[in-house]
Amino acid sequence: MVKVTWLGHACFTLDDGTHRIIIDPFLTGNPVAKTKPEEVRVDAVLVTHGHGDHLGDAVAIAKQCDAPIIAPFELAKYCEKQGAKIHPMHIGGSHGFAFGKVKLTIAHHGSAFVGEEAEYTGNPCGFLVTMAGKTIYHAGDTGIFSDMKLIGELTPIDLALLPIGDNFTMGPEDARIAAGFLKTKQVIPMHYNTFELIAQDGDAFVQSLPEGCRGTVLQVGVTFVLE
Ligand code: NI
Ligand code: MN
Prior knowledge:
This protein has six helices and 16 strands. By secondary structure, it is an alpha/beta fold. It has a single domain (2-217), classed as Ribonuclease Z/Hydroxyacylglutathione hydrolase-like (Metallo-beta-lactamase, Chain A, 4-Layer Sandwich). β11 and β12 (134-138) form a beta hairpin. α4 runs parallel beside α5 (172-182). The longest helix is centred in the C-terminal third of the chain and has 11 residues, at 172-182. The chain is globular.
């Protein structure tokens, strides 16, 4: 059993009762987030790419929890320079941690951290996280790609967290097709309704999912129990 809690945008915590991790912790400056970064207690911080709405509070949370940031190599090294503990990985690679297994997938997107100056943080990724016998795919920010079929073939997916906001990532129509490519049993939409530009109808999206794939619209702060 894994408790999957949506903290808004692309940020989720995964908790199996023993270990808890956070993915893409964009809390400060996130207009829909209800959780403060100081409240977060996790064993690891996973970050898909360097954009501010994903890297977010990752360094602060990693430091306060004495937890590693797990990210693509260049992004991990960027976080190390800010004083965080890191575990660098890269696309196609997997590693077993105390909380479970992580494998990095491709994602078609950008990744530079764009502050006052842009800082190169490598390629963006998605994550396959296997905890307590369940595999969760966090797609990161990406357009649809046909290798999603391969991802689902190599690793049966219990739950896919898919962006549906359009403009910067897949929109709902492509995310529906992506769910079919992945052959995932369940889907939770993400990366929408944070800002006006990525407003979408989550209910209409989950109703459009292919047969045999169940969708759940989460409200921010609500936990979905993956059994
Ligand atoms: Ni992005
Ligand atoms: Mn984004």
